[in-house]
Amino acid sequence: MPKGRLCKSIAYVNGSTSRVSFWDGSVSFCYLRLRLFIDLNPKRAGKVRHPKANGYSSFRYYAYGAEDPLITPAPSYLELAASPKHRQACYQALIAEILKNDWKEKRPYSSVAFIGNPEWVMGRTEALKSIRRERFRLWKAIHRQRFARSNS
After folding, report:
1. pTM (predicted TM-score)
2. Where are the beta strands (DSSP E) in 12-144?
3. CA distances for 112 relative to 45, 51, 150, angstroms
């Protein structure tokens, strides 16, 4: 894909499907996708509120042009646009789009009983815990007997 058209293509795909898609069949798209994943990882892990707050990623280099002697720009990044300012704008737009539609936000649903009558749910949860403890106690007793017989 010619330089400078990649950002427009991604914007077109994003606008038509409401999600970010980076694949055009080239390996460089895989590297761009990996780069975005790496820069978003600390945010998704809850260590920072935004990727720019992480001082140990390449986000500031790719999004704002901050100097970093350890980074050599990836070809997939260079393909985003012809000029550095346009590449940075494209990278910022990609990150912003992902953050806007990011489904990785943590929600407490898995640790809170929220379906049905809360008293019944909590009671059933305690009953299941009791059953699980009893089954484990029986399993442990059986295996202790087997282990004792095998050592005799």
Report:
1. 0.52
2. none
3. 21, 29, 44
Going from N- to C-terminal start, the domains of the chain cover 5-100, 108-151
Structure tokens, 50: 């935004």
pLDDT digits (tens, 9 = 90+) for 86-143: 999 989 988 888 888 776 455 544 455 455 677 777 888 899 999 999 999 999 999 8
Distance CA 146, CA 143 (A): 5
| Residue 43: C-alpha distances to residues 27, 50, 81 (Å) | 26, 6, 26
Pair 94, 20: CB distance under 8 Å: yes
Nearest to 19 by CA among 88, 91, 106, 94: 94
CA distance 91 to 35: 10
